[in-house]
# Entry
Amino acid sequence: MAESFEKSNHLCISIFYYSLLNKAKKKGKEYMEILRVENLNKIYGKGENEVKAVDNVSFSVEKGEFVAIVGASGSGKSTLLHLLGGVDRPTSGKVYIDGQDIYSLDDDNLAIFRRRQVGLIYQFYNLIPILNVEENITLPCNLDGKEVDKNKLDELLKTLKLENRRKHLPNELSGGQQQRVSIGRAIINSPAIMLADEPTGNLDSKASEEIISLLRLSNKKYNQTVIIITHDEKIALEADRIITIDDGRIVKDEKQD
Ligand SMILES: Nc1ncnc2c1ncn2[C@@H]1O[C@H](COP(=O)(O)OP(=O)(O)OP(=O)(O)O)[C@@H](O)[C@H]1O
Ligand SMILES: [Mg+2]
# Structure
């Protein structure tokens, strides 16, 4: 009797630990997969004007990956990036960011989620012209009614080499400086993913190297996931992985050493 009790007790303990282990494994996996895209489609227009800008795209990205998206003009890169960031809604398909099915959210909650979990960097910076450098960078915090972490802001301004430009307005900055402000704005909330649409498309090679090394720095230092669209082969070759898009589809997906 005592022996069978001990056996069943032992079995219970084993099952308990096994389930704990499985949970930890599962949690670890969920933690690692920061983005999952399932059968994503975006169709513009109707009838003979119909354009399948994103055509049944599925892939996933691990936390801390630095991914380059490349492809010809008009192949659907920006459309895809906007869908990944919750800027636009897909015709069909799903996008999960850190486990959240983002298109199950209504517009208000999607906007809040985007502000907290997605850092977007545009080719043309998209800064608010009447706000100075500090105000542009801290805009996502202010919109959230969150207090700005002064130390974090100081560290960020230093990293971005903008300490001496705090009170400047965007039109008083060079292109590279404006892009650095937009990186600051994207990173201030430590988003789950950073999405950049040709962030160096408008810059000379020196400024563009600085921007890429900044993105690399936040990728390495904070294990920040970065997805970047680029036409620049040199930049793409620095990524951990290159996804090639053609006619709205993924035609190549290669990891690099
Ligand atoms: N709002 C829209 N309405 C209709 N068609 C659109 C719209 N936005 C994009 N498209 C079409 O979708 C396709 C993909 O456009 P997208 O901007 O994603 O391309 P891209 O790969 O980013 O190009 P580029 O390298 O030139 O920026 C193009 O054929 C484009 O004409
Ligand atoms: Mg584009």
